[in-house]
Specification:
3-stranded antiparallel sheet; single chain; 6-stranded mixed sheet
Length: 388
């Protein structure tokens, strides 16, 4: 009797001690599981929009804006039987951990977000990924819609980034040459001239003007031997060596050839080049167009294959983006159910090899995130999902 009473007291004390206490390991496990859930939700949202764009349907973007949760532990001791006869009573201790996360989800359809995803990517942004070591061939294929090149006698040659277009082989050669030898430089022809040109004897005094003036200025030498005070343009251009896209029907490697790619139509039309230099324009995609492009590659016969990274690399390992039905490739790191069917970015071998699909999705996700701001996360009208 006394022993059983002591047991009950100890069990009750233990339950009181454990009530509400959650260890660091439990918190860590749940934090990581939330992170994994966000990864899966984001990947599924992107894949859904890729499939929608494949079928020319409306895309819908949502964002998981906040996750809050409470983790609570609870221990209980149940006693069944005759309360006055503890030797005939049954003691049933129990312990449980409850997790009640709260998710806030916003529909990204504001004017600011929509304008952002419809705005062509800037050369400054492309230069950032370029300098950070992103695979240049993937970067150019994902973000460039077409290339316009001014050839002889006013001929304008357009190269389309479409595997089914007859100009696509030349487009690929230009992309590969730019990835191998391209370098970003300031677009000097857009410099703003400050004041009249001066002779060499007066140019020495321009240094004082530069120090006194507000803004970034420099002295530029003119072809007539005089000097000009200018404010350099902040725009960039891409210079490529060693390939002439105007040589023959498919272009050709020419060591002394040089091509300069501008971003805007105005820059392209007003620039002047000399000798064997080609004047060209890179027409950049918007983040929305990047999703459209992935959707096009999800259509039959439109998969793009990258150049080999190692000798003998299989073609299936070099595809830019791959989507398969779940029945053909059941396993994959990204999956979504669309129109009653399961689709995956595969994770196997052979025809189920993902190639560079995950890298392409990651770039698309970053480009979309750059267009999202706090204004896209309204305090009112938020969908809240509470799980028990």
């Amino acid at each position: 009797m006394k022993h059983r009473g002591t047991t009950v007291a100890l069990a009750a004390a233990l339950a009181t001690t454990l009530l509400g206490c959650v260890g660091p390991r439990a918190i860590s496990r749940r934090t990581v599981s939330y992170n994994t859930a966000v990864e899966q939700a984001r990947g599924e949202m992107l894949l859904l929009n890729v499939l929608r764009s494949r079928d020319r349907r409306m895309m819908v973007f949502t964002g998981l804006t906040r996750i809050t949760g409470s983790v609570r532990s609870e221990a209980r001791v149940g006693v069944t039987g005759n309360a006055d006869a503890l030797e005939r009573a049954s003691i049933g201790p129990s312990y449980s951990v409850s997790d009640s996360p709260t998710f806030d989800m916003a529909v990204l359809d504001s004017q600011e977000f929509t304008r952002g995803i419809m705005t062509p990517l800037s050369f400054e942004l492309l230069e950032y990924f370029w300098d950070q070591g992103f695979v240049r061939e993937i970067l150019l294929l994902m973000t460039i819609e077409r290339i316009e090149i001014a050839c002889q006698a006013g001929e304008l040659r357009e190269l389309q980034n479409d595997p089914q277009d007859p100009t696509f082989p030349v487009f690929r050669q230009v992309v590969n040459a730019a990835a191998a030898s391209g370098a970003w430089e300031a677009d000097d022809h857009l410099n703003e001239e400050i004041g009249p040109p001066v002779e060499a004897a007066e140019a020495a005094r321009l240094g004082t003007l530069i120090q006194a003036a507000s803004g970034r200025l420099r002295v530029s030498a003119r072809k007539d031997g005089r000097f000009q005070l200018v404010r350099p343009a902040e725009r960039l251009r891409l210079a490529m060596q060693g390939f002439d896209p105007c040589a023959g029907p498919y272009g050709a490697p020419v060591p002394e050839s040089r091509a300069i790619f501008y971003d805007t139509k105005r820059s392209f039309e007003t620039a002047t080049v000399e000798g064997s230099v080609r004047r060209a324009r890179l027409v950049a995609r918007s983040p929305q167009s990047v999703i459209f492009y992935l959707g096009e590659m999800a259509r039959p016969g439109r998969e793009v294959v990258l150049s080999p990274r190692t000798p003998g690399q299989a073609e299936t390992e070099r595809r830019l983006f791959v989507v398969r039905e779940g029945g053909k490739c059941p396993a994959g790191p990204v999956a979504a159910t669309y129109d009653g069917k399961r689709y995956v970015v595969p994770g196997g071998k052979g025809d189920c090899h993902p190639g560079r699909s995950l890298q392409s999705l990651a770039l698309a996700a970053q480009l979309l995130s750059l267009q999202q701001s706090s204004r896209d996360l309204p305090a009112a009208g938020t969908v809240r999902i509470i799980g028990q």
